[in-house]
Amino acid sequence: xxxxxxxxxxxxxxxxxxxxxxxxxxxxxxxxxxxxxxxxxxxxxxxxxxxxxxxxxxxxxxx
Length: 63
Known about the structure:
The protein is an all-beta fold. The protein has no helices and 5 strands. The mean pLDDT is 93.
């Protein structure tokens, strides 16, 4: 399992995507505003995702 780095785009929980803002020992903090429709989904801007529960879909982005 490859651990995401800050700036990576990850996908988790059936299609949600976000940009990694911080990497912790067991999880990452993800900014969901990367998705165009995150407000429509009524999600908070940030969430925590365990390393076991995501896949990296893009190595690094700049916002």
